[in-house]
Amino acid sequence: MRVMNNIKTLYAMIVLLGAVGCAPQTEFEVATWHGFKQCAISYTMEDSYDNQFKIALPMFHDYDYPCTFFLTTRWCDRTKWDALREATTIWGCEVGSHTVDHAVYDTLTREQQKQDILDANARINVKLPMYKCNTFAYTDCVVGDTSIISRHYFAARGCHGYVERATPNDYLNISSLMCGSNEAVRNFQDFMNGFNTAKSSGGWCIFSIYDIDDGAGYSPLSSDVLRASLDYLKEQEKTNSFWVTTFKNAAKYSKERDNAKWEIVKDTIKSGSNRVTEDNDKLTIRLEDGLDDDIYDHPLTLRCPMPFGWREVEVLQNEIVLDSEIKTINGCKYIIFDAVPNGNKKIYLIKLE
Ligand SMILES: [Zn+2]
To answer: How far is the CA of 160 from the centre of ligand 1 (A)?
Structure first.
């Protein structure tokens, strides 16, 4: 009997110590970047040069990284559209607009800019009917009329030459680093500088790539250098440092994360004679970003402390089971999962026995 009591006391002490030992820094956290990676990296190509399709695209497939094509629609032939159809549906690549025939917008009137945007988008819609193009890259880095741009695109890429912070200064003129023989990023070390700056600042590094190797287009980049940069990122995957993603996904994530608001609701159950008790086996989370759900549909990575006494958990959103993992950080257990911020799609954490 005494032995039993001692064991009980010891057990209580362990539970108590366990609880004291775990002091969560935050109750609930949205990761700065997807998967709690330290920074985001985006490879964007513009002008629709042949070698982007012949050399770069297969290379991105090899590494299983998505990339972004800012299309000059009149410069795309049938083979390129076919490649883009596969790239967007199978490989998660992005198609943005880079005008119809590379007109520089400060040479166009407001009306002409509007028409050019509509024509480029219409062409993309015809060729890729399942795809919604809603990003843009300025030609020659010249910013157009942003009141028109913002009506058709939620993010636009410029080329200031610096690595953006986790929140860009201006979503309609997001900075990129220009690559190739005529520009600043030419060799592997130049790519490394971009990676390292992004990593140390928790920011977002976007590369603008033009022609590749011996193409006759603007500022060709060596495919060996491109491959070496992808090799490095692949090799670094185990460190969880770099989120390699498209321009639009990083832009969506950034804005959703900054606007995300959440509340944790303790569910109640009615039992017996109208007695209402807390349902300790279920947590409901309402996650909302106040943004247009048709555009802002990228899942955010979330971290929630494991409720006391729970061992296993299932995470549901809209009746769909989400991937989740349980991680111990500084002695505290957390549930980590991805969910789309949408107040109408509540998230349920359910205790499993
Ligand atoms: Zn261009």
So the answer is: 14
Residue 71 CA, ligand 1 centroid: distance in Å: 9
According to DSSP, the β-strands at 39-46 and 204-209 are parallel
pLDDT digits (tens, 9 = 90+) for 148-179: 999 999 999 999 999 999 999 999 999 999 99
Residue count of the chain, please give it.
Answer: 353
Ligand 1 geometric centre to CA of 50 (Å): 14
Q: Name the residue with tokens 């986790």.
A: 166
pTM (two decimals): 0.91
Cβ 94 vs Cβ 247: under 8 Å: yes
| CA 46 to centroid of ligand 1, rounded, Å | 5
> In this structure, what token pair is assigned to residue 260?
């995300």
- The domains of the chain, with CATH numbers, are 38-256 (3.20.20.370), 260-352 (2.60.40)
CA of 113 from ligand 1 middle (Å) equals: 16
Residue 40 CA to ligand 1 center (angstroms) comes to: 23
